[in-house]
Amino acid sequence: MSKDVWTIVSIVIVAALSALSVAAISWGIDNHEIGFGFWIGSLLTMGIMSYLYADNPFYKFTEHLFVGVSASYWIATYYWTQIDTNLLGRLFPEKTSFLGMTIDFSRHGHEQNLWYLIPLVLGLFMLARLIPSIGWISRWSLSFVVGLYAGLRSYGYLQSNVMQQAKETFRPIIIPGDFWAGFNHLVLVVGVVSALLYFFFSKEHKGMFGTISRVGIFFLMVSFGAAFGFAVMGRISLLIGRFDFLIRASTAENGYPSIVVTVLMVAILSILAMKNKGKGEDEDELFEP
Amino acid sequence: MFWKTQIPVAIVFVVGMLTLVQWFIPHRPFDQLQVHMTQWFDIIAVFAVILGGLNLLKLQFSKIINRKKDWQYAIVTLVGFAVMFSYGFFRIGVPGEIVMGDHLQAENSHFRWMFFNIFTPLSATMFALLAFFVASASYRAFRIRNTEATLLLVAGMILMLGRVPLGALLTKNLPSFMQLQNIQEWIYLWPNVAGARAIMIGIGLGMVATSLRFILGIEKSFLGGDE
After folding, report:
1. pLDDT of B168-192, one tens digit each?
2. Closest Cβ opposite residue B46 in set A48, A61, A83
3. How many Å apart are CA B180 and CA B172, to the nearest integer?
4. What's the CA angle centered on A254, arms A252 and A257, to 5 degrees?
5. B93 contacts in A (CB within 8 Å)?
6. Which residues pair with residue A254 across a beta bridge?
7. pLDDT tens, B113-123?
8. Which of B20, B128, B93 is nearest to A156 (CA)?
9. Greatest pairwise CA separation for chain A in angstroms
């Protein structure tokens, strides 16, 4: 098949599958009694979990689906919350007619502000990146973003990250009647100063300076440990959430979706693994269809 | 050269200076600059997200057309994109009285159903999976056995144990200052804050220096390689 024919065929296949999927999902959603959400949720959850065994077709399927669905999800969310509300709502605040179409963004309640043509133009310039011959014009939009961010953040960070933090660090270390409060303040001062000295690279970390910067490393390690602990706890709570879902999806009223999906998945992966046993040295080749 | 390099550098300078000035002259018209320019920033950022989406489509179609490795899965990405897009932008599965835009959060909209039954399981499981990799990473860190790695893991362990009922149960008979929930609180409030604050101050100073380099045109890396 020539490349041009294959291009058209692939577009037709994608369009047909998309229309079919929309119809099937809409049917599933409208028929609550079949527990469609539990079946889909179980399939997707177990599909991603299957990666713990090895990279396999179920994981690849869910991973690719995740990319497509999340890209569209964010585009839709940002379009309706920013472009529709803040851009078009300000450019066309009253009901108007354009090329036979009725444009109505009056529900957002903004006043007309034609200065908002600037972000519209810069936004369109950003999309020019898709056309190589005029892609350079997207630099103008990027420059606006860089300049704005630099201007806003340089002062903002100076205030919040430097001034405020320094002010909160230097507290009294001797507090009559409360030894431990003073001690804690001392820990804070020593920790911040020593860790900052660790980041000072203009002088070699030797002698007294090296000792202080080593103390700084210890404080930094405790901070990283705390961040690590919170990261683990966050992930574990997500995992508990997914297990909770799978348990809820294992009831008879929905037809045991999580159990059926797990058994089927294990069976298919086992058959594929046995079929391809000894074929390749790479683990990825274990599940080649 | 002028349009591709000097104009972008001039835009950074003008926009950067204008936003800097509004911090020091908090009166009209400068005080309005931050409000509107932040909105402009968000709007342009949305176009960047749209650009990302279009680029994704371009790459996936090129993967199918050139039949690269695993091209079949690119169809899954495109179908997933198209389905979510249909529910996001067309009036499919939107209850009659709901205005487009409000359907994102509407109780019975199919877009919301997709969020809770497809997007959430996928994203939550993907991130939950990292728990296993973090466990294996901590095992490897334990094997390094130097003071810094030990400190990191001990602090992490105390923090985790001290914040769950098991930690309190394990040390409930010990004196107050030796109970895990109290130790974790002290670590969290003092040594942890000291380290985190030093990092924040470092980031703040770095941010100021880098921002000034951008505004003054010393740093031009954002223009890409062929400036």
Report:
1. 999 999 999 999 999 999 999 999 9
2. A83
3. 9
4. 90
5. 26, 29
6. none
7. 999 999 999 99
8. B20
9. 87
